[in-house]
Automatic annotation (TrEMBL):
The gene is leuB. It comes from the Bacteria. GO terms for cellular component: cytosol. Mg(2+) binds at D227, D251, D255. Substrate binds at R100, R110, R139, D227. Its cofactor is Mg(2+); Mn(2+). GO terms for biological process: L-leucine biosynthetic process. One of its GO terms (molecular function) is magnesium ion binding. Binds 1 Mg(2+) or Mn(2+) ion per subunit. This is 3-isopropylmalate dehydrogenase. It is an enzyme of class 1 (oxidoreductase). It is found in: Cytoplasm.
């Protein structure tokens, strides 16, 4: 079968990690008899440089027409980049928000799993790690603070900036349903994270999540305040199965969860619509501090490509093979710098991609 993938390398380390994910997909294609064809699309800083906007209508159309999208990362060194001091809709990150909204990718699935092999790279104490952890963060991706009205203006002689946080019950319901559906295939525990002691949007969140939970009597639902959740993640990560939360909280908590897996370079993600269409992207950014050095960890992107095989193409066996190859390379002691520990062998971005591809 032929799969048409829109590929968005983006900025910084984006092109380096995308190269490795394509290497792995091509290997899957050869071994299992599929053809993956790639249409490259510009987004982020590279698109601003080429067209003056972070995402052109044509780019969005190409993504819409594809079978799925594979994204590296966008953005520069925030604050210091030539793309910083411009109107909000002209920043690299605006391209990312526009493609998420334009493709209706409201469900961001971020699995945080501790490979036994990476226990040494995890900053938590052994007693806390226990038998490890395996959670999925279900982050709402097209609502909340990211998409509310924004302004900066002088009010009574004082510069004032406003960002608004809005959720309606439909937006909450559809992400909650996805979270409960995923929980049914896992350990059947949902922890919904909010700030219902302060925010109206969180109170509505809680109410709607409770309504959805009624349709899933086998799933245990617990609510947790977001500040407590940030603490619980490093105190007892093993308690989490599915973490359901809104856009901004999910952004922050997923970076925290990534570090306890060893590195943000390990955290994959899928951004899905109602059905099987998705954009697959590592949870990390363009890492301008290490771009162009061939040292970034490509595993988050490679595992995101595995999620593409599973969720968009129903190629479970192929996805399993990619995940097993990652595990094998780690168990053989190969590490990029970010997950390096004593006794292991340090490899570059491209060597890591080669090693994983060879094991499929
Ligand atoms: P970042 O995730 O890019 O980097 C944070 C730190 O983690 C850096 O020290 C970086 O070197 C390291 N890191 C990230 N990915 C790594 C990898 N694969 N291997 C090894 N180390 C890795 O976050 P940031 O520095 O806050 O943001 C940089 C830029 O990326 C900003 O412009 C931001 O807006 C953008 N960003 C984009 C996305 C995306 O496109 N999905 C996500 C997050 C941030
Ligand atoms: C992520 C990123 C993005 C987000 C930024 C770049 C807009 O941090 O995918 O986690 O906050 O969603
Ligand atoms: Mn983020």
């Amino acid at each position: 079968m032929n799969y048409n993938i829109a590929v968005i390398p983006g900025d910084g380390i984006g092109p380096e990690i995308i190269r490795e994910a394509k290497k792995v997909l091509d290997r899957v294609g050869n071994v299992y008899g599929h053809a993956f064809s790639y249409t490259e699309v510009l987004m982020g800083g590279v698109s601003i440089d080429a067209y003056g906007v972070p995402l052109t209508d044509e780019a969005l159309e190409t993504a819409k027409k594809s079978d799925s999208v594979l994204l590296g990362a966008v953005g520069g060194d925030v604050g210091n980049s030539r793309w910083y001091d411009v109107a909000p809709n002209l920043r690299p990150e605006a391209g990312l928000l526009a493609i998420r909204k334009g493709l209706n990718l409201f469900a961001n699935i971020r699995p945080a799993y501790l490979y036994e092999e990476l226990a040494q790279a995890c900053p938590l104490k052994k007693e806390i790690i226990g038998d490890g952890f395996d959670m999925v963060i279900m982050r709402e991706l097209t609502g909340g603070l990211y998409f509310g009205e924004r302004s900066t203006k002088e009010v009574d002689g004082v510069m004032t900036a406003v960002d608004t946080l809005t959720y309606n019950e439909n937006e909450i319901r559809r992400i909650a349903i996805k979270a409960f559906d995923i929980a049914m295939k896992r350990r059947k525990k949902v922890i919904s994270v909010d700030k219902a002691n302060v925010l109206d949007s969180s109170r509505l969140w809680r109410k709607v999540v409770e309504e959805v939970a009624k349709d899933y009597p086998e799933v245990t639902l617990k609510h947790m305040l977001v500040d407590n959740c940030a603490m619980q993640l490093v105190m007892n990560p093993g308690q989490f199965d599915v973490v359901l939360t809104e856009n901004m909280f999910g952004d922050i908590l997923s970076d925290e969860a990534s570090m306890i897996t060893g590195s943000i370079g390990m955290l994959s993600s899928a951004s899905m619509n109602e059905g099987k269409f998705g954009m697959y992207e590592p949870s990390h950014g363009s890492a301008p501090d290490i771009a162009g050095q061939n040292i970034a960890n490509p595993i988050a992107t490679i595992l995101s490509a595995a999620m593409m095989l599973r969720f968009s193409f129903d190629l479970d066996r192929e996805a399993d093979a990619v995940e097993a190859a990652v595990q094998k390379v780690l168990s053989e002691g190969f590490r990029t710098g970010d997950i390096m520990s004593e006794g292991c062998r340090k490899v570059s971005t491209s060597e890591m991609g080669d090693l994983i591809a060879e094991r499929i």
